[in-house]
Amino acid sequence: MVNEMESKISAAEWEVMRVVWAQDKVTSKEIIDVLQQKKDWKPATTKTFIGRLVKKGILHTEEEGRKFLYSSAVNESDFINSTLDETFEHICNKDVGNAIVNLLSNATLSFKDIDKIEKVIEMKKKEAVEEIPCNCVPGQCRCNNCSSGH
Ligand SMILES: [Zn+2]
């Protein structure tokens, strides 16, 4: 499981994690090489980000011979899902639909993806409600002002 602290990583740390997830076990040199190519980062910069991820408990280290091997302590798709879930927790329940429409509109999708989405849509149609209640704390949301004020 990914806890709330662990799921907060910077864009730079994402770059490091993508290398680790793609290769299971990597040396710092392998991470450095990929990110030097992609981002033109100096080895010291990449090492800083690796260090932060180790400190956050997202990267495991083990010693093999004379070098350190890094592996992910969190599953990639779990991590992505918890990051997305967390983002949706920051918005009003009433705005979630629009946010999903935007995501969907901007995504490049395969026929297979669309099949899966259609299946979910069919399911959602059966559970759909007339009006979504706002779940926000007063003062954090516009719709909350309306429903209590009028
Ligand atoms: Zn609200």
UniProtKB/TrEMBL annotation:
<keyword id="KW-0238">DNA-binding</keyword>
<dbReference type="InterPro" id="IPR005650">
    <property type="entry name" value="BlaI_family"/>
</dbReference>
<keyword id="KW-0804">Transcription</keyword>
<dbReference type="Pfam" id="PF03965">
    <property type="entry name" value="Penicillinase_R"/>
</dbReference>
<dbReference type="InterPro" id="IPR036390">
    <property type="entry name" value="WH_DNA-bd_sf"/>
</dbReference>
<dbReference type="InterPro" id="IPR036388">
    <property type="entry name" value="WH-like_DNA-bd_sf"/>
</dbReference>
<keyword id="KW-0805">Transcription regulation</keyword>
<comment type="similarity">
    <text>Belongs to the BlaI transcriptional regulatory family.</text>
</comment>
<dbReference type="InterPro" id="IPR014071">
    <property type="entry name" value="Cu_transp_CopY/TcrY"/>
</dbReference>
<protein>
    <submittedName>
        <fullName>CopY/TcrY family copper transport repressor</fullName>
    </submittedName>
</protein>
